[in-house]
Design a protein that fits this description.
Blueprint (H helix, E strand, L loop, with lengths): L3 E3 L10 H19 L15 E5 L2 E2 H12 L3 E3 L1 H4 L3 E2 L2 E5 L1 H9 L4 E7 L2 E6 L30 E2 L7 E2 L7 E5 H6 L5 H4 L6 E2 L13 E2 L3 E2 L1 E4 L2 E2 L17 E8 L3 H4 L6 E7 L7 E9 L3 E11 L6 E11 L8 E16 L2 E15 L32 E16 L4 E18 L2 E4 L6 E4 L1 E23 L2 E23 L6 E2 L16 E23 L2 E18 L4 E18 L5 E12 L14 E12 L6 E18 L10 E21 L2 E16 L3 E4 L2 E4 L11 E10 L8 E10 L2 E2 L7 E2 L2 E11 L10 E8 L7 E6 L2 E4 L4 E9 L1
């Protein structure tokens, strides 16, 4: 039935910089966490503690949701139990038990502690007025709030409303903060490495971007708190979000234009920021690891005033690190403040943002297939081979984001929301990639010297009105919205070949004379501006055990691309209607079969031979699935099957008499697949994650041909690259609950990435690989109560240091997957 859920290593010696990081970290902890907070908010709320409640009258479900958030409990129930019932609210001081008794008085309902951290409501037996005891739990789950454990129950990514995942007629995978912490995820790619149907070319080797492909080789677009992040015409102006600042990472599979406008058909990734909390929580950590890694973090949150109208959060990270023993760097500074003002239970305004500065010298770079993917008479090229130039190669990025989240409940029916965000990045990349391997000695690597500079920015404004009402026995959650996107992208690229020294890949010598910056020749100087206006509507209709989700959207998308080298200007306007329809049935035992149909559109830049602008590429998906969330459990299982088709794909124009180089929109691709994901708490202290994905992706219509062994060969019938046919992963984490070893945690995971094609012609086959990850943790508070909150963790990815090729774009552009990385983290929470 439908439920509502209410809220060893280093090779590089440690410099004095680590001491500065430690001092800074503890200084912030003392000044912000202890000195600035009233002493009374530092105490943990208990079941018997009295606290002030100011909850206005309203519908019972709304009042219970507000109470759960204020009390810090996790409460779930069937919406049918509270349908049509009103509550006078709760004013004054009360314990949690007294408060629930007051709110449920006269409703015929009682509260029940089921298991774990789940508490629910049920009808009281005839003649009974008793309410079972209530126990406080740490945390309250909302669509954007923290989750205890690995299995999330609610999300707003798929519907823009706080909706139970089991009611969403589409696949949504959620990685919680607890899961990211247990696996020590240092990038969004690493956080999603156990998620089915997701592929990241090169694995976690490419530090520059979080490039992720979904459901058959379709690039995902990234959102932050629902706001579109830059993704320009040249894919340079991309932000990379620091996962320590995130509460959760959510993947919406399939076409998602109905709520977000232009998007690729594979889906999108929405990252949810850490927000201010109603109760005080503080955390600091120090981390060291492979290749001299040094990292310090701090996360402080809680109320500012006695009434709890003002809440704050401050999250920060500083890192000095490397990917290999030679030349690489991965340094970052990250700061994210947030402030919430909640003058009443009906109104909330959160100001939030972040600043991030990266300095990287990535190991990710071009290597030939001979010596990596294939045999080379000189042997294998070292996985740590740095093929660039240490004094030239770098990737520097500075990015920031500012905005607000506003919500005001006008009455029991209408709620107004508005979210505004500005995201910006500026970056520079200097590389010395190879472009030819000497065919005689098979070791001399000819290189070019290149420099790319760019910016990316998005301004998003999303205004929503939500109506909650009944028409007879049907309950509606109707959403009406208008959003605006302004995206700007600049890119400047220059390079030179003459005079660039070659490199012996088996005996490299760096520092040879090379051209200077002034010798580079400009190749690209472009500016692009995109504006999107979208009007959307959605209704979630609930009738008994049925949930029908209907949505439609109309978009106008304008883009202007300027080539500053030729003074050429190309304008384009696309109009599109997209929609979604889905039906879910909720069984009382927690099973929920569903069926849905959804569409998407993606503007396509450029013109055909006749100068006509290309139409937007269209996507459509049919998905059927079964979700399982047993009542009272910390379990979420999703099984889905789908067929995804994209039309108006660009393909070569082979019309007789026309010169080569032009394109036409006659292409079509299709992906069919199965995905399975399960997240559960099997027993106290025992958590598990398992996933499997199968995809059959194919180019179903195209005019493109490739020369294979000297013979022209059509791409029709070829598989899409970046789409392994089989992927599987499993993670098991256990913490000893009693005895001499209590507090000791052991975790292990296995990831299987099936074979894949690295190029459209399907000539470069990337072999399958199986990788093992592991973790050991210890909670010192189990040994000595005075050490409560102190935790030590040791994490290893690719534990057995498996050597493998992550991806190949051409036979002259391959990259290795990441080798073994080991991290030790000391964390203190209070």
């Amino acid at each position: 039935m439908p439920r509502l859920h209410l809220p060893l290593c280093g090779l590089r010696p440690a410099p004095t910089g680590l001491r500065r990081i430690v001092f800074t970290c503890f200084s912030f902890a003392v000044v912000l966490a202890i000195g600035s907070l009233p002493s009374h908010v530092q105490a943990q709320t208990t079941q018997h503690a009295q606290r002030q409640f100011n909850i206005p009258a309203g519908s019972l479900s709304s009042v219970l949701a507000t109470f759960a958030g204020a009390a810090g409990i996790n409460l779930s129930f069937d919406p049918a139990l509270t349908a049509g019932q009103q509550s006078p609210g709760l004013q004054g001081h009360s314990t949690i038990s007294q408060g629930l008794n007051t709110l449920l008085s006269g409703t015929g309902l009682l509260s029940v502690h089921t298991s774990g951290n789940v508490y629910t409501l049920q009808r009281a037996p005839a003649g009974s007025t008793a309410t079972l005891p209530i126990v406080t739990v740490e945390g309250f789950e909302s669509a954007t709030g923290p989750v205890i454990g690995f299995a999330a129950r609610r999300s707003a990514t798929a519907t823009k409303t706080d909706t139970p995942l089991i009611e969403v007629p589409q696949t949504v995978n959620v990685v919680t903060r607890d899961e990211m912490t247990v696996r020590a995820s240092n990038t969004v790619v690493e956080a999603l490495s156990y998620t089915p149907g997701l592929y990241a070319p090169g694995g976690s080797t490419d530090l520059r971007y979080d490039n992720i492909y979904l459901r058959g080789g379709y690039a995902a677009r990234n959102n932050l708190d629902g706001s579109r992040l830059p993704y320009g015409a040249y894919s340079f102006g991309m932000l990379q979000i620091e996962p320590y600042g995130l509460e959760r990472v959510e993947v919406l599979k399939g076409p998602s234009s109905v709520l977000y406008g232009q998007n690729t058909p594979g889906g999108l990734i929405n990252m949810v920021s850490k927000l201010p909390t109603e109760t005080a929580q503080r955390e600091i950590s120090l981390q060291t690891g492979s290749y001299g890694r040094e990292q310090a973090t701090i996360d402080l949150s809680g109320p500012v005033d006695d009434e709890g109208q003002w809440r704050y959060r401050f999250t920060a990270l500083q890192r000095n690190a490397a990917q290999s023993p030679y030349y690489t760097e991965d340094d970052r500074i990250f700061v994210a403040p947030a402030l919430t003002w909640q003058p009443s239970a009906r109104t909330s305004l959160t100001l939030l943002g972040f600043y991030q500065k990266d300095h990287q010298v990535p190991l990710y770079g071009t290597l030939p297939a001979a010596g990596t993917l294939y045999d080379n008479p000189n042997g294998e090229i070292s996985r740590h081979r740095f093929a660039g130039e240490p004094d030239w190669d770098r990737y520097n990025r500075e990015q920031y984001s500012v905005g607000y989240l506003f919500s005001h409940e006008l009455n029991d029916t209408w709620t107004f929301k508005q979210n505004l965000r500005y995201n910006h990045m500026r970056g520079e990349a200097r590389t010395m990639p190879g472009y030819m391997l000497d065919p005689v000695d098979m070791r001399t690597w000819s290189r070019t010297m290149a420099r790319g500079q760019g910016t990316g920015a998005t301004f998003t404004l999303d205004t929503q009105v939500l109506a909650s009402f009944d028409t007879g026995s049907v309950h509606h959650e109707a959403l009406f919205g208008f959003d605006y996107l302004n995206m700007r992208d600049t890119y400047y690229f220059s390079n030179v070949i003459a005079g660039v020294p070659s490199l012996d890949l088996y005996d490299p010598h760096y520092g040879l004379p090379a051209p200077g910056v002034d010798d580079l020749i400009t190749r690209i100087d472009a500016r692009q501006k995109t504006e999107q206006y979208g009007l959307y509507m959605q209704d979630q209709l609930r009738y008994e055990n049925w949930v029908l989700t209907l949505g439609g959207r109309y978009d106008i998308a304008d883009s202007i691309t300027r080539n500053l080298m030729t003074s050429q200007k190309v304008s384009q306007r696309d109009r599109a209607f997209t929609g979604r329809a889905g039906l879910t049935y909720l069984f009382a035992n927690g099973l929920a079969p569903y069926l849905s149909y959804s569409t998407s559109f993606t503007p396509t830049g450029g013109t055909d031979y006749n100068g006509n602008p290309f139409e937007a590429s269209k996507g459509k998906q049919v998905e059927a699935g079964l979700k399982y969330q047993p009542p009272g459990s910390d379990t979420m299982v999703t099984l889905s099957v789908y067929q995804l088709t994209q039309t108006n794909v660009l393909t070569s124009d082979t019309t007789p008499g026309r010169p080569p180089g032009f394109q036409t929109q006659t292409g079509e691709t299709r992906a069919r697949g199965i995905e399975l994901e399960g997240k559960t708490t099997l027993a106290q202290g025992l958590d598990a994650v398992a996933s499997y994905a199968y995809v059959d992706s194919e180019i179903t219509r195209t005019a493109n041909t490739d020369i294979v062994d000297g013979i022209p060969e059509s791409r029709q019938g070829k598989r899409l690259y970046y789409a392994p046919q089989h992927q599987a992963a499993a993670w098991l984490n256990y913490t000893v609950q009693s005895g001499a070893l209590q507090g000791l945690g052991l975790g292990a995971g296995v990831r299987y990435i099936g074979s894949d094609w690295g190029d459209p012609a399907n000539t470069l086959r990337i072999p399958a690989v199986t990788l093992v990850d592991a973790a050991i943790t210890y909670d010192f508070g189990r040994m000595d109560p005075s050490l409560k909150g102190l935790n030590l963790a040791l994490n290893a990815s690719n534990l057995f240091d498996r050597r493998y090729v992550g991806t190949c774009i051409t036979n002259l552009s391959c990259s290795y997957g990441a080798g073994r990385m080991v991290y030790a983290t000391l964390r203190y929470r209070w």
